[in-house]
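Researcher: Please generate the 3D structure of the following complex. Treat every line as part of one assembly.
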Amino acid sequence: MTPDKRMKGAQALVAALEDEGCDVMFGFPGGVAIPFYDALYDAKNLRHVLVRHEQGAAHAADGYARATGRVGVCTSTSGPGATNLVTGIATAYLDSVPLVAITWQVRSDLIGTDAFQEADVTGITLPIVKHSYLVKDTAELPRVVHEAFHIASTGRPGPVLIDIPVDVALGEINYRKVDKLDLPGYKPTVMGHIRQVRAAARAINEAERPVLYVGGGVISSGAAPELLRLAELRRLPVTTTLMGLGAFPETHELSMGMLGMHGTVTANYAVHECDLLIAVGARFDDRVTGKLKAFAPHARVIHIDVDPAEVGKNVTPLIPIVGDAKHVLAALVKELEGLEWSPERTAAWLARIAQRKREHPLSYEEPADGTLAPQCVIEAIDRVTEHDAVIVTDVGQHQMWAAQYYTYTFPRQFISSGGLGTMGYGLPASIGAKVGRPDKTVIDISGDGGFQMTMQELATAVNGDVPVVVCILNNQYLGMVRQWQDLFWRKRYSFTCVEVQPDFVQLAEAFGALGLRVTTKDEVEPALREAIASQRPTVIDFRVAREENVYPMVPAGSEITEMIGGPAERGRKKP
Amino acid sequence: MKHTLSVLVENKPGVLTRVAGLFARRGFNIDSLAVGESEDPGLSRITITIDGEQHPMDQVTKQLHKLINVVKIRDLEPQNMVAAELLLVKVSAEGDKRSEILQIAEIFKAKIVDVDRRAVTLRVVGTNDKLEALIALLKPFGVLEIVRTGTIAIARG
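Model: Done. Output below.
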């Protein structure tokens, strides 16, 4: 873009987006969005993926961002278009995903008059954005876009909303790329305090029973190589949160898998028994800690996080380190390399963990009625894709089985709505992920309930030629709620039975996608291979055992060693 | 203990909404809030008083800091700050009660800013404690209306 080119606000926005390196966005047009869409019509380097509902645009941009590490961009018209983005923005906020949401607004002079399709979207989204703008003047646009991308992608990432009245898109400016920032109140801490890093290094060196507790922050900061180096240097066993899956290869001997409500026995007991807990980019969420007071009761805690407000929020660490995980872990490695240490120090601890891994692997029983075990479908996906696919999930039982039974080996491989737990996330997010990673097989593992919330996005996949493979673990229940009703509400299955559902195979075909159905174990792998080879958007309707539960399970608010299906219950039949 | 936060913010539209919204969302109760332009026209200063017993002050300031428009936060120490609040109070003052009220006003260096047949309005500046004490003394006469600005405070030195 040549400096000082005269253009309309809408064109300036396209230019500003391109200058930020944005080459794809997800959106849906509408009345006040027309000037922007008109400019988009001529855009050479900015691809637009047309969704079928604005929620899909936000989730797709989110999936794109998680899969690539770049900022995801979505857009919608004013009023209902903007409010439809809200669930997607909240999803990105809770999982710290860099997202820029551009909403169009009624004309400036109509704001506040309850004009047609007017909604106060900056007000509505205030508690679920990292920052937001209501642009009042066309001249502000280039600066606002530059700031929005910076804020969304640095520090603890998050969504930034830009609300633009239509007259701002029509106004003319001399466009010039902005590369300066003036944000006096925004200076994220990147480097950890060296004294704290040294204290942490000493604590790690002295520990006899250390555990690395790794969250999504390690993935956002690109710290997986530093994490691997640290873990191997002091032979630290690693457990990850749901958001941290992929930050550490699960094929590694030091991996204990996921912890928390549906975590492994090995991980939960290790956290319970450890004398040093090193939390990196994790926030001691209630789904991880269970009863907070009983969490890691014997441990000194090191907490490394880029967000100072997370440090000390739920657990008061002995050694807090505010900083970017990549830098802090690299500094820790450097410190530790200068200290003497003998592997004997933790040998007994590692032996205990190894033994527990052998004795308590994740396990399930084949359904007695000969139906398909949902876990076995995930294992087959793992085998067929050789631990190398990008796995996107919806929310519910299938999400936990996907977390448990797929082997994650690299960052940004597992994409799931963890914090907000948004049903309907899977399909649109997988479309965004596949757009961002066309080189990878992208599998959306979904449930029949969540899939029905955003299934119209199959048209987006077909229209945009985005070959995602949707695997529906279809048990004709809202399975996770049914599981809670089963375990804690005397099997009163109140409104969780969804036997009335479309024929997903015919549905897929109606959308122009490939539809397959699997009812037996033998059909699982061939169907997966056919779907992947087809290079078409595909829906596979896996008819799975209807009342299978996710185990182990820590009931909400219990200690994380109080696991249903855990060692304390061995020999007893599962309830 | 009552905490007094002096929060320097960018003078931009919606900043007060962001601050107030944050307090509401995180469940922090504001005792008082006063806002106005600072020495730099680009910046405003918000004085917030909040009960430190009820809230983890560390979380309050850290969450505030996350707002992009918040530039600086100081948790002012009571012994090292000067604080004041403006109070307007309308008191029922019929007949012989009037002189008693005027005496109280004088002790508190309150100014009579309005008088009519049945009531007087006092204007007084002081710390929160002083204003509370004055209101307590005026209560028996019949306090008709109270308007307060909320505390503003500045660090000493």
